[in-house]
Each structure stands twice: as structure tokens, then as C-alpha cells.
Amino acid sequence: MFRGALLLVLATCTGLVGASVCDVRPGHGSIRQALASTNGCDTIIIHGGTYNEGAITIDRAVVLLGQNWPVIDGGGAGEVLVVAAPHVTIQGLVVRGTLVSDMNDNAGIKCTSVSDVRIIGNRVESCFFGIYLSSVTRALVADNRVIGDSTADENRRANGIHLWKCSHVDVLRNTAEHHRDGIYLEFVTDSHVGNNTTAYNARYGLHFMFSHRDSYTHNLFHDNGAGVAVMFTHEVTMTDNRFEHNRGASSYGLLLKEINDAHIARNTFADNTVGVLMDGCNRATVSNNRFVANGWAVKLFANSTAAVFEGNSFSGNTFDMTTNGDLVLSTLRGNYWDRYRGYDLDRDGKGDVPHRPLSVFALVTERMPYAMVLSRSLMVNLLDQSERLVPTLTPATLQDTAPLLHPPQGPESRTIQRAELERGQRTAFPLSLCASLMALLSWWRFNGHSIH
After folding, report:
1. Do residues 230 and 200 both lie within one domain?
2. What pLDDT digit, counting tens, does each position of 355-385 carry?
3. What whole-number distance in Å separates Cα of residue 49 and Cα of residue 34?
4. Which residue in 151, 297, 379, 397 could disulfide with 275, CB within 3.0 to 4.6 Å?
5. 151 and 252: one domain?
6. Which residue(s) pair with 95 in the sheet?
7. Which residues of 2-49 form beta strands (DSSP E)?
8. Which of 270, 303, 302, 274 is nearest to 289 (CA)?
């Protein structure tokens, strides 16, 4: 594998005169000396061992290839590897030893105002920032393990993979754990984030703002503080991702805030406090996703317009959908809802009567969160059943006009069926009818009604 990578790198240098390969071994030269003696696109092979050379600046086109996982230790003095030249490749290194700072963005590998860099197959361990790209064009960050200090407080952690003001960057097949944000992008355009795993990060698994025309596909985001946050962005594509086990008082699988023209498709949202929260989103297409065993599958705020939900499956969620207003300017059609109790007389696979996914109790908890203690009580079930029969309180515009009778077939169909079975086996919460009636009366008075 190493020889193949070396041949690939050398092949890119064949057009350069004087390109050569040099070796660095513990006790025989240093990385600094090797860099000082290289010509453009020379390759430096760093053999296994530990190199304590402080911050190392790479100021020329060069390939650094580690063999047997050499450790580059910055000694806690600041940065470790600083890339200040284009056409640099860093591969096969263990990087550690940054300084934790409230003033400087110290990183294990930092690239600033360069282009055409490749950071491949490294292990960045217990660094403040892991891999940091600033004002970089055309870069590849792939197959790295960026693991932070799991014992540090959140304010002593920074981001695992951090991109600021970059374009045409591919972030592929990386693992980012125990940082503040696993992957962070700001002012990043025309880039792709794919096949990464982010987990156990204190804040977000993925966080990006003002980053347009980017795509995020086939990633796994699980057990993060608040899942994934997308803010102030347009033309974003998120497909074939998994958002799992992101739980907490203010947690969600995916937050979409002030987003225009988003395409959200074929994702799985499982066991999150909130699957998707949409706040101020316009023209979002949400299709063929799986919402399984979440607290709230979708929170669709009334300031979101022209969203289309189609071909999605909702199974085993405590609440399938909720909103915070009476006017909902979005469209639901052709989704599967495990709570749908309609019929299909013409046998076309679609219900003959619409389905309203917003329950009365969902409205109550949206305005009075403490009412959640009454979940699964007898009175709540009766109230929701009555609303389905004679809808009066839920928004008339929030309904699926052609609900599916069966979930769309796909690789997650067994997961959906299992979630339905588990949901059916849950028992009602043993609260008194009197307590349920009190909650209902409180909600009624909260909305300005009087009882005579």
C-alpha cells in the first residue's frame, strides 16, 4: 500500500527536473533539515519514531510520507505542521502536541492561503484544532483520524476539521471525535463532504454557515451534543447520511436555519430528540428519508415556506411533526405514516382520505413543554383520536393528501418495521384521568378561551 502511494506521488513529479527522495530517521537528520534541502516536489520519507522539533513550517512544494506511523510532536509550543506553500502532500503521520489557546487557532496541521494540498491518511491526536484550512483552494482531506481529548472541557476543545473561506475542497472518509465540532465550515463553496464519521463531539458533528453550493453525502453523525447545524446557506445538498442518537434538551439530528433551496434526500434520522428542525427555510425538498424512533421527527416552523415532503417514512416517533403557527405554507404528499388509519378502496397504495400528522398533544407540548409528563396517558390518546375524526384545532393546511399505505421498499424497511413493533408494545403512562383533564384545561386557558 505504501509503495503504491509513493509511486502515485512520484508519478506526479516526473515532469520536474531534479525531483528526488530522501529519508529521515530518528537520530539521523531532522525534518527541518530535509525540508531545507529539498527542491520542488521532492519526497521526504519519514520513518517510524518520535520527532520533537516544535512547529515545522513547510514553505515549498513537497511530499511528506510517513512509514510505520512516525510521531510529529509539537511539544505544546503552538502549531505542529504549518503548510505555507502550494502542492504539498502530507500522508501517514501521527501529529500531536499543539498548545491550547484562547487567542490563537493552533492546529495539528494548518494550511493558510495555499492551493492544491493533500492531507491523506494521518492520525491527528489530542490537538486543539485538528486539521485547519484557511483561504485554501483545491484541497483533499481524506482518510484521516482526528481524535481530540475526551477528558477536556468544551471550552478547551476546538474543531476537528476546520475550513474557513475555502473552495473546491473534498473532505472524504475521515473520522472526527471528541472535539467541539467534528467538522466545521464557514464561507466554504463548491465543496464536498462525503463518507465521514463524526461522533462524541461536544457541540455539533457537522456545523457549517454561509457555505453555498456544497454537498454532504454518505456521512454518519451519531452521539454528538447537538447533531448537525446548517445556517445561512443556499443550494445545499444532503443525501444518504445517517443522523443517529443525537439526544439532549436542545439537540437534534439536523438543524436547518435560514436556508434556501436545500435538497434533503435518502437520509436516516433515528433516535434523535428532534430529527429535523426547519427554521426560516425556503424551497426545501425533503424526500425519501427515514424518520425512525425520534422524539419529534420534524419540527417545521411556520416561517418556513414552500418546503415539499414526499416519499418519506415516519415510524415509531413520539411525534411525527409539529409547528409553531397556524399557517403552514409547505406541502406534504405521498409519505408513509405509521399512525395513518385511513383506507384505500381503489387499491392504488395511497390513502383515500388525507392524514394530519400534527396531533393536538404536539401543539400542547410546543407551547407548554412540561405537559410532556402526560405523554401516553389515556386522556391524551382520546384527545388525539377525537381530533383525527373531527379536525378542529390542528392547522388544516398541514396534511398529507395522498399518504402511503406501506413504507417505500428499501434497505431500512426492516428497521422501520421493527420500530413499529416496538412502538406498538409500549404501554400507556399510568397517570390519572384527572391530571390529563387539568393539562387540557390549562392549555385551553393558555389560548385565551373561557369556560362557563
Report:
1. no
2. 888 876 666 566 656 556 556 655 556 555 5
3. 16
4. 297
5. no
6. 72, 124
7. 21-24, 42-47
8. 270
**Which amino acid is it at 191?**
S
φ/ψ (deg, to 5) at 219? -100, 160
Chain centroid, CA 273 distance in Å: 14
The pLDDT-based confidence of 270 (bands split at 50, 70, 90) is very high
Domain-terminating residue out of 152, 180, 207: 207
Enclosing domain of residue 23: 1-207
* All three cell numbers of 405: 399505505
Instruction: Flag whether 214 is in a domain.
Output: no
233/140 same-domain check: no
Do 295 and 427 lie in one domain? The reply is yes
Name the grid cell of 135.
483561504
Nine cell digits for residue 58: 513547510
Q: Which of 239, 237, 227 is nearest to 267 (CA)?
A: 239
Residue written as cell 384545532? 393
| Spatial CA neighbour of 227 closest among 255, 201, 261, 253 | 253
- Strands 228-239, 115-120: parallel, antiparallel or unpaired by DSSP? unpaired
- What's the distance, CA 220 to chain centroid? 7
One domain for residues 243 and 202: no
Length of the chain: 452
Provide the 3-class DSSP secondary structure of residue 405. Answer: coil
Model confidence band, residue 265 (pLDDT cutoffs 50, 70, 90): very high
E-only strand ranges, 289-400:
290-292, 296-300, 305-310, 313-315, 319-322, 329-333, 336-337
Task: Specify burial of residue 168 (Cβ count, 10 A radius: 0-12, 13-18, 19+).
Answer: middle
Residue 340: count of CB within 10 angstroms of its CB: 21
C-alpha cell of 51?
520527532
Yes or no: say if 290 and 267 are a contact pair by the CB < 8 Å rule: yes
Rounded CA Rg of the chain: 26
Whether 253 contacts 294, CB under 8 Å: yes
Phi/psi at 391 (nearest 5 deg)? Answer: -65, 125
- Residue 314 forms beta bridges with which residues? 291, 337
Domain boundary among 179, 207, 235: 207
Is 219 a domain residue? no
The answer to whether 148 and 154 are in contact (CB under 8 A) is no
The pLDDT tens digits of the residues spanning 390-401 come to: 555 556 678 898
Quote the cell numbers at residue 87.
502542492
With H, G, I as helix, E, B as strand and everything else as coil, classify residue 37: coil
Using CA atoms, how far apart are residues 142 and 237, in angstroms rounded to an integer? Answer: 20
